[in-house]
Amino acid sequence: MKAIVCDAWGPPGMLKLLELPDLVPGPGQVVIDVHAAGVNFPDVLIVQGKYQFKPELPFVPGSEVAGVIRAVAADVNTFRTGDRVIAFVPTGGFGQQLLATAQSLIPMPPDMDFDTAAAITLTYGTSYHAIVDRAKLEAGENMLILGAAGGVGLAAIEIGKALGARIIACASTDEKLAACRQHGADVLINYNKEDLRAAIKAATDGKGPDVIYDPVGGDYTEAAFRSIAWGGRHLVVGFANGAIPQLPLNLALLKGASLVGVFWGAFTKRDPQGNMANMRQLLRWLQEGKIRPHISKRYRLDEAAQALNDMAARKVTGKIVVLPQ
C-alpha cells in the first residue's frame, strides 16, 4: 500500500510518499481501505511536533477517515468485511489502508458518500462538544464565531442554527463570509475591514454575544472577549492564528464571564459513550439536512503535503479531503 510518512519533525514538504507492507489486523482491530481522509489544522501541527499529541517517528499522519473494511480480527464480531465505516484515530489516515480498533468505528449511513463521512468527525464533533456540552447554548442566544469560514467554524454555524441561536460570523474576506451566509449565518463581520468591537456592539444592540466560539486566538480573542455579554461563555477551541492570547483576567470578573476550554480529542477518550451519542445526533441532523459539510477541495494522496500547506496558510474554506485510492 502507499502512504504519506512523517519520519522527521518539520514542515509538510518533508513528508514522503512511500510503499509500505499491507496491514494485518491484531486482536480487536480491523483494516480499512481508505476512500477519503479529512485534513485538519492539528495535522499541520502534529507533523511539526507542535501539537499536544506527539506520536513516535515514523508515522502516517491523518486522523479521520471513511472507507470499507477489508479485514477483521478473529475476535471482532461487531463489523464484517465490506462494511462502510467512519474512523477517528490518532494517526494513519493518509494512506491507502488504515489499522483501527473496532471500538473506534462508526457505521456509515447507507446514503452517505465517503467525502462527507470523512469530513464530519473532528470538525462537527469538536463544535458539537463545544457548543452543546461546554457552552450549553440556548435558543435565542447570540453566538459569535471567529474564523467562521473554517471547518470547525462552518460546523459551529450549522450547529448553532440547529439549536435556534442567532449567529454572528467573523472572517477575513468577503468570499469566506459568503460561505458563512450560505450555511446560515445571520450577521457577517469582515474583521479585516471593520473594527471588531464596534461591529459586535452594533450586531448585538450593545449587549454582546452570549457565546464566543474561538478557534483563532491572537489579537481577535481579546477584542471579542471585551465585548462579551454579562454571564457569557468564551470557548477556547484553538489557535489557528498561531499566537496564544494573554487575556487580562479582570475582564472575566467584570463581565461575570467564563473562559471555557474545549479539547475534543481528550473528551473522546474520557467519555467515549458521550462522544458516540453526540455523533449519532450529528448523523441524524445530517440526514435531516440541518448540517451539510462544505468540502471545498479534494487532493490526491501525493498532494497531501500541499493540502497541509493550504491549511497552514488559511486558504481553506470549510473542509478539504485527501483521496488515497
UniProtKB/TrEMBL annotation:
Sample GO molecular function, one term: oxidoreductase activity
SMART domains per UniProt: PKS_ER
Pfam families (alphabetical): ADH_N, ADH_zinc_N
PANTHER family: QUINONE OXIDOREDUCTASE-LIKE PROTEIN 2, SHORT-CHAIN DEHYDROGENASE/REDUCTASE
Top-level taxon of the source organism: Bacteria
Database matches in SUPFAM superfamilies: GroES-like, NAD(P)-binding Rossmann-fold domains
Organism: Duganella lactea
Residue ranges annotated for the Enoyl reductase (ER) domain, each copy included: 10-322
Protein name: Zinc-binding dehydrogenase
